[in-house]
Amino acid sequence: MSATTDNLSAILYKKNDLRLEQRPIPEPKDDEVLLKMHSVGICGSDVHYLVNGAIGDFVVRSPMVLGHEASGIVAKVGKNVTNLKEGDRVAIEPGVPCRYCKFCKDGKYNLCPDVIFCATPPIDGNLCRYYTHAADFCYKLPDHVSLEEGALLEPLSVGVHACRRAGITLGSVVLVTGAGPIGLVSLLAAKAMGASRVIITDIVAHRLEVAKEIGADDTLLMGKVSTEEAAQQIEKILGRQPDKTIECSGAEPCIQLAIQATESGGVIVLVGLGPPKVNVPLVNAACREIDIRGVFRYANDYPLALSMVASGKLNVKKLITHNFKLEETAQAYETARTGAGGAIKVMINCLKE
Ligand code: NAD
Ligand code: ZN
């Protein structure tokens, strides 16, 4: 296969049926760029599509290219593109909204009902050699920011958006529940935005060790204690209750704990997406004027995430635990699925050797 026609792509046909196949190299439309793909991180949702063939109402009904945490190098520009040129290294914001609806015009384009989002059925993702994307949803990386860091701007933007929604600022005292990749990027973003203290919980000790290494002030391994007891432990460790809580597990006990642990008048943001219905002490939250806010992906957060990385305010590189080549996609997904070897972020390199 010659380098100019090779577009090896990781295609999910259906549940547990992931194939590496050739697809034609696409032509960029007038407002698009053709990207030679570089780094693509594996997200929990990619693994979920592979294992279950669906997430909620989004069902894989026809073959779909996986991958949405990505970066690449501009190989060709459409005729209207002025912000990028061939050779630019870019981070790819994977959701392109309609730009016309009420939500888009209001700046909340993450809520656009017509958003086209990589690797959300039936839209193809970018775990392939060549991929086209709207040029204005590609962010040029400064020379000293790596393409791996560029790919990590995707989960980091979730953390940045969560912290903005929570109103994290100088001196915030923050509880993060769940120390998976999303909890960890939320921790990094909260610290970089000025939080004076961040405590993070999980049920897996290793994840808390990683959290400590990347800057958590305190950790709490959730054992067999009740959520009320855990809330008391958190208050004891911090010497006060947290004023902001970022829920990043989707687990019912964590949402309960978030309400019990947060200071009156504080804010909880729900990033974790668990079962559709959960049982929570809502009256407790109401009587203590706790604001509970939703978080859906990100909007206008890539530029901030990039400037935080570029300025050295935070370091996302430590989240990468494993690296694979595109040809090793099956192995990469198996590592992400099982969490083998303490996997946090598994990164796939799409460049041909
Ligand atoms: P993950 O599964 O790697 O991390 C979840 C962590 O929570 C794990 O480390 C797990 O051990 C921990 N956990 C589970 N039960 C717990 C409990 N009872 N107490 C403490 N910790 C517990 O997933 P992730 O990739 O980090 O994503 C986290 C969540 O965020 C998922 O629900 C995902 O769907 C969601 N998510 C939401 C958005 C959004 O836009 N809202 C974007 C990305 C991911
Ligand atoms: Zn829209």
From TrEMBL:
Keyword annotations from UniProtKB, A to Z: Metal-binding, NAD, Oxidoreductase, Zinc
Pfam families: ADH_N, ADH_zinc_N
Single annotated GO MF: zinc ion binding
Cofactor: Zn(2+)
Domain Enoyl reductase (ER): 15-348
Keyword Flavoprotein: no
Species lineage: Eukaryota, Metazoa, Ecdysozoa, Arthropoda, Hexapoda
Listed PROSITE patterns: ADH_ZINC
Superkingdom: Eukaryota
Example of a GO biological process term: sorbitol catabolic process
Family statement drawn from the similarity comment of this UniProt entry: Belongs to the zinc-containing alcohol dehydrogenase family.
Entry protein name: Sorbitol dehydrogenase
Transmembrane intervals: none
